[in-house]
Write a structure and sequence with these properties.
alpha/beta, Spore Coat Polysaccharide Biosynthesis Protein SpsA, Chain A, seven-stranded mixed beta sheet, three-stranded mixed beta sheet, 7 helices, 19% strand, globular
Length: 242
């Protein structure tokens, strides 16, 4: 079983080595990192370690994290059972056994994983299991890091939404905020619609960095992002209504 880390960055030079080291130290060693350079304007690219398990791809211009994740997931042919892991380059795995934990989960018939995490401030995230019986796009906004999924599930999403309308506003532009939500929600809908199994990481396995450029910084900023979520991302047509 191979894990493929999808890790976009824009000027993340202060964090990218710590990100890489948290993966390199894993006791489970069947992995690769796909770093997506989203038009950085500093020397972050030069800080990426030399490792045969690293692939670097670059956007022609700055597209934002949602397109970058899509680009990283789909830039080469993959096997249905390959595990995609969304770990941005300013975040880290929490301990050296994180991939062992995920590998144990995916040995079962799970298609999607999400779960508990810690903020870099030491505060635990707000994740808890989704209720499949009552699932809809109005569920409360909560964390779901670390998100992972089989590529076969993502291929089913692409077959249902080849124009990526789930990722775009009415003007056809990729969402610039709430991008984790935009990517995660259709996959969870697909699980619900097809009675596929997902799991929640009861054990925190990710460290989410709080810094001035993410939404975890101030209540006012979080409120602004939630308003964007409610007015722009949620109204996209559900692909897999229950």
């Amino acid at each position: 079983m191979k894990f493929h880390f999808i890790s976009p960055f824009h000027n993340h030079g202060d964090y990218i080595l710590e990100h890489y080291e948290s993966i390199r130290r894993q006791t489970y060693q069947n992995w690769e990192i796909i770093y997506i350079n989203d038009a950085s304007t500093n020397d972050t690219v030069k800080l990426i370690p030399k490792d045969d398990r690293i692939t670097l791809i670059s956007n022609s211009k700055r597209y934002g994290p949602l397109f970058s994740r899509y680009h990283g997931i789909t830039h080469q042919q993959r096997q249905p059972d390959d595990i995609m892991v969304l770990l941005d380059s300013d975040d880290c795995l929490l301990d050296d056994g994180a991939l062992d934990y995920l590998a144990t989960q995916y040995q079962q018939d799970y298609q999607l994983g999400y779960g508990n995490f810690y903020y870099s401030t030491g505060k635990k995230g707000c994740t808890y299991p989704y209720s499949y019986e009552n699932f809809n796009r109005d569920y409360d906004w909560r964390g779901y890091h670390l998100c992972s999924f089989r590529y076969g599930l993502y291929a089913q999403f692409l077959a249902q939404d080849p124009n990526l309308l789930s990722y775009k506003d009415n003007a056809g532009n990729f969402f610039t905020r709430c991008t984790d939500f935009a990517l995660f929600t259709p996959l969870l809908e697909l699980c619900v619609h097809n009675n596929l199994q997902s799991f929640m990481n009861e054990r925190p396995i990710m460290w989410y960095r709080v810094h001035p450029n993410n939404i975890a910084c101030t209540p006012g900023q979080r409120t602004d992002v939630k308003n964007y979520l409610d007015s722009t991302v949620r109204p996209r047509p559900a692909l897999y209504p229950t």
